[in-house]
Amino acid sequence: MHRRQFLRVTGGGVVLAATAGCSTALPAEALAAWQGPSAGEQDVRRWILSYAILAPHSHNLQSWRVDLRTPGEILLYCDLTRLLPQTDPFSRQILMSQGTFLELLDLAARERGQRAEITLFPAGEFGPERPDERPVARIVLRPDAAVTRDPLFAQILRRRTNREAYEARLPEPAAIRAVLQATDGQPFRVDVTRGDAAELAAHRAIAAEAWRLELTTPRTLMESYHYLRIGPREIAAHRDGISLNSPMVRFADAVGLFDRTQTPAPDDANVRRQIEDFQGKLAATPAFYWLVSEGNGRVAQVQAGRAYVRAQLAATAQGLSMQPLSQALQEYPEQAGPYARVHALLQAPAPRFTVQMWARIGHAPAIAPSPRRGLPAQLMA
Questions:
Q1: Mind listing the pLDDT tens digit for each residue in 188-220?
Q2: What are 268's strand-pairing partners?
Q3: What is the pLDDT of residue 20?
């Protein structure tokens, strides 16, 4: 064990020396979708969907399947091969990600003077255990001169899920108001911490413990490992998942010091570093956002996703970043403690209430967008 740690540390030094000139930029083809639809796109549905596929999705799985075979109609399905059975056993987060897609679709439709008539679960709602092959939504587009454009549309290409360290300064009150007002009139309770030291400490402690549990529970860590994309070749080939492109990680993976086929030991140095790194980010986080629903049905989950992405777009417009803290909201047994604590902290006793979203919010450095598979990869034949 000591020799393995020594190799990691000294190897890191060699990597830094040998790869100082290596680029960390993501492959251009993996980011092409962020250019928006092509100038010559004639099909309004494809134009709209080119924005919808840029929605945030847990683990960046992009579990959207789209059927355009009926003229004037869009059917949205959940890709059942792109689920997270270990960390998201009931697919609550997957359904929220269907909602983020639908909200961006609606914003893009409005931009083109189209009224998107969205019917959720037209063939019946999924049960509480898992999604199935029935559609999530049917969307019919109708030209409507009375449709109003939404200013949040302008933020779609700028939106990022920012996992970097945030500045310690509090977001401006006007900016927080704009984020909260983005979901006015929707059946959710939303709020943001106001700088109270004890409250912030409670948020940070729960988030840190939930992160530790996910990294030290073998099956949940392996689920994340399955979606790691290391280096330009893997990132370009998959265009999804969790992208790692630093020279150090690429070198460690190439020489076998980063084994994705088995879980590390509980005291593994890399795991400890990840835990410590995230604790440092939490310690600097100036504020936390949350969104609570009454009940936890599939419709509520989809609508919560729509509400969250509106909040994130509003934050983008205000120069703020957001990162979901999904670990404590996950419903596998090891997270029962953090799950109960965050629900108690936010005065949302389960099962009557569900914390659908909990996120860091603040000022952060600019980052590149995440890879996207592109619309053709998500269209049904």
A1: 999 999 999 999 999 999 999 999 999 999 999
A2: none
A3: 47
In a domain, 54, yes or no: yes
Say if 55 falls within a structural domain: yes
CA–CA dist 125, 131 (Å, integer): 9
Whether the link from the prior residue into 37 is cis, omega within 30° of 0, is: no
Q: Classify residue 250: in a domain, yes or no.
A: no
pTM over 0.85: yes
Return the closest-CA partner of residue 33 out of 58, 59, 60. 60
Residue 20: other Cβ atoms inside 10 A: 8
Tell me the pLDDT band of 315, cut-offs 50, 70 and 90. very high
The alpha helices in 239-368, defined as continuous H runs, are: 247-254, 269-284, 298-317, 336-345
- Specify the DSSP class assigned to residue 279: H
The distance between the two most distant Cα atoms of the chain, rounded to a whole number of Å, is 69
Distance CA 110, CA 113 (A): 5
CB-count burial class (<10 Å; 0-12, 13-18, 19+) for 266: exposed
Cα separation, 223 vs 219, in Å, equals: 6
